[in-house]
Structure formats: structure tokens, C-alpha cells
Design brief:
- By secondary structure, this protein is an alpha/beta fold.
- The chain has three domains: about 80 residues, Orthogonal Bundle (Arc Repressor Mutant, subunit A); about 100 residues, D-Maltodextrin-Binding Protein, domain 2 (3-Layer(aba) Sandwich), CATH 3.40.190; about 100 residues, D-Maltodextrin-Binding Protein, domain 2, CATH 3.40.190.
- Helices cover about 45% and strands about 20% of the residues.
- It contains twelve helices and twelve strands.
- The strands form four sheets. It has a five-stranded mixed beta sheet with strand order 4-3-5-12-6, sandwiched between helices.
- Helix 1 crosses helix 2, helix 1 packs across helix 3 and helix 1 packs across helix 4.
- The chain is elongated and about 80 Å long.
């Protein structure tokens, strides 16, 4: 019955027998027979068929809720079996956005491995909504995202606040008339992070709010590459404050310029995880360790 229940959930979620058969790589008549078999075993109809539209019956809705819960339990069971087979190895899967991967994850990994040298850490990258889904579906033990998450299935622990800062090569021409202000970004040669992340969205919102049109020379998805190219291109950039370290600035002969309007571009980086009762004791301990680490910083 497990197979039929899974196929049933796919039909409900796709809202179409045709789309479900394509996803399952099964012919539509074969899929219809599977659902008919399930209805026969249950002794009740799961769908009301209104033309080409499928509408769940009350028993169909109950069956869908049960099927989803059963699937989640099955995934948890498979995960426990995998953990048992690799007994003695400690593993932690962290979901993080590309920007978070570059800004927060290195420090976080260093903190965890300092106390647990044998810890095997796996990182999965994605956009914030993808990380939320990974954690919700237990494909990641925890997630680090650059926002606060309001999800009834997840816990959200704020770690720290971050905002954008202006980074320039030392002796950049924009400094000739004194400390730059926000309007000096208009027409300024800049290297920016690639589109599609919270960080770039925040940057574009800032430009739109103050009606700024910088001279964008490059768009790159690596903070390190941006820093290395600033001198060569005589360009500036906006980076999350959390990423910058004194040694980074020194090695690349760069300076950070405080601009009041940039401090308003605040984002809260948070740790998200499933309900504590569903987590292993080791994962709960690591979550507490991460939260404690950021309280001390």
C-alpha cells in the first residue's frame, strides 16, 4: 500500500493525473489502476471526478494527510537506518545560502570542529526558501539563512544582525573630496555580487530607494574574487559587514567607509531547525553550541 499512497500524494500535489503520471514515469491508465486498487482496499472513493478536475473527498483528504505523515516517518526511518549503519561517525548536514556560505559558515564550521574534531559536516547551498524546505523535509539538520523565518514546523533562532558596507581601494578617487555619502554611489564604478540572492536584492533595493545608478563593471558570485578585483578595476563594492576581516582588508589594501544609510540595510541571520523532540541529542547539542557561540561574539 505504501507505493499506492505515494502515488496518491503525487496526484493530489500535481492536481492532475496527467502531470502525476509524467512525474512518476507511469502511464495514466496504469496510475488509474493503482488508485482504483487503493480505493478498493479502503472501500471508499478518494476523488470526486468533476469533468477533468479531481476533487478530494473527505476520506481522500484524511488519506492524503495520513500518506504525507507516513512518507515523513518512512524518511526518518531510512535516516535512522543510515545513521545506524555508519555508527561511530558523527555527521551534520547544514543548509546555507551562497552568501551565508561565504560569510557565516566558515566561522561556524570552525567552532563546531574545534569541539568535535571527528564531526563530518556536509553543506547544501540554495536560496532561502529552498533551505527552509530542506530543513522542513529533514534533508538538512539545520539551516543558516539571512532572514527571520515564520514557519509553524520550524524553530528560528536569531544569531546576529548584518548590514551592507562600502569597500574601496585605499586612495580611491572618490575619497578626494572627503568621506563619501550615499549620493556618491551614483555613477561610481562598482563590482557587485550576482543577482538572485538576498544580498543582491538588498543592494538593488538600496539603489532604487535613493535613485542611484552606479557604473556596474562586473557581477561575480564570489566575495573573495570581488575583493581581489577592486584595485585592478579601480572600483568599489557593497559587502555584508559580517564577511569582512581586518586581515582581508589589509591583504587587498582596502578600506571600509561608514555611511549612515547603509546601516539601515539590516538583515538578521538566523538558525532554523525542526522541533527539538524530533532531533537527535547530538544535533540539539550542536544547535545550542552555535547559539551560544554567537551570543559571545
Amino acid at each position: 500500500m505504501l507505493d499506492e499512497l505515494y502515488m496518491f500524494t503525487v496526484i493530489v500535489e500535481q492536481a492532475s493525473l496527467n502531470k502525476a503520471s509524467a512525474e512518476l514515469n507511469l502511464s495514466q491508465p496504469a496510475l488509474s489502476r493503482k488508485i482504483a486498487k487503493l480505493e478498493q482496499e479502503l472501500g471508499a472513493l478518494l476523488f470526486n471526478r468533476i469533468g477533468k478536475r479531481l476533487e478530494l473527498t473527505r476520506i481522500g483528504q484524511l488519506t492524503y494527510d495520513y500518506a504525507v505523515e507516513t512518507r515523513q516517518q518512512h524518511l526518518r526511518y531510512l535516516k535512522l537506518v543510515a545513521e545506524y549503519k555508519t555508527a561511530g561517525r558523527k555527521a551534520l548536514t547544514i543548509g546555507a545560502s551562497l552568501t551565508t556560505l561565504q560569510t557565516s559558515l566558515p566561522d561556524l564550521i570552525q567552532t563546531l570542529t574545534a569541539s568535535s574534531p571527528e564531526l563530518d559536516i556536509k553543506a547544501i547551498t540554495g536560496k532561502t526558501h529552498e533551505i527552509v524546505t530542506l530543513v522542513r523535509e529533514r534533508k538538512a539538520d539545520l539551516g543558516i539563512v539571512a532572514s527571520s523565518i515564520d514557519d509553524p514546523q520550524l524553530k528560528c533562532i536569531p544569531l546576529f544582525d548584518d548590514h551592507l558596507v562600502l569597500v574601496l581601494p585605499r586612495n580611491h578617487f572618490v575619497m578626494d573630496k572627503g568621506l563619501p555619502v550615499i549620493t556618491d554611489l551614483n555613477g561610481l564604478p562598482m563590482i557587485l555580487f550576482s543577482k538572485g540572492t538576498w544580498y543582491r536584492i538588498l543592494t538593488d533595493e538600496l539603489f532604487e530607494k535613493y535613485r542611484l545608478l552606479p557604473d556596474v563593471r562586473m557581477e561575480i558570485d564570489s566575495f573573495e574574487a570581488i575583493l581581489r578585483l577592486l584595485h585592478t578595476c579601480r572600483a568599489a563594492t557593497l559587502l555584508p559587514k559580517s564577511y569582512l576581516r581586518p586581515e582581508m582588508l589589509k591583504d587587498n589594501d582596502l578600506i571600509v567607509i561608514p555611511i549612515r544609510e547603509l546601516e539601515a540595510t539590516k538583515r538578521t541571520t538566523s538558525l532554523i531547525h525542526a522541533e527539538s523532540e524530533s532531533l537527535s541529542p547530538a544535533v540539539r547539542l550542536w544547535i545550542d553550541e552555535i547559539a551560544t557561540h554567537y551570543k559571545r561574539v
